[in-house]
Amino acid sequence: MIDTVTKVIELVGESPKSWEDAIQNAVAKSAKSIDGISGVEVLNLTARVENGKLVEYKANVKVAFPVIDR
Predict the structure, then answer these.
(1) Three-state SS for 67?
(2) What share of the chain is helix, strand, coil (3-state, %, to 5)?
(3) Residue 46 belongs to what domain range?
(4) CB neighbours of residue 43 within 10 Å
(5) Which of 21, 55, 64, 66 is the most exposed, fewest CB within 10 Å of its CB?
């Protein structure tokens, strides 16, 4: 039996395009410094509005990855 420990961190992804892109940005950028991301939970979606239009999408996400013995 293998004992596994998973760490979860909260991030905010941003994008001028969409909420999906904001989520992708959070995962892709965190994957540059975190090995083995195994899941993402979307907590909250918000946006910045200027002149009645959405101009920036934000996604609060939790990213899960295994803790590795070193």
Answers:
(1) coil
(2) 20, 50, 30
(3) 6-66
(4) 12
(5) 55
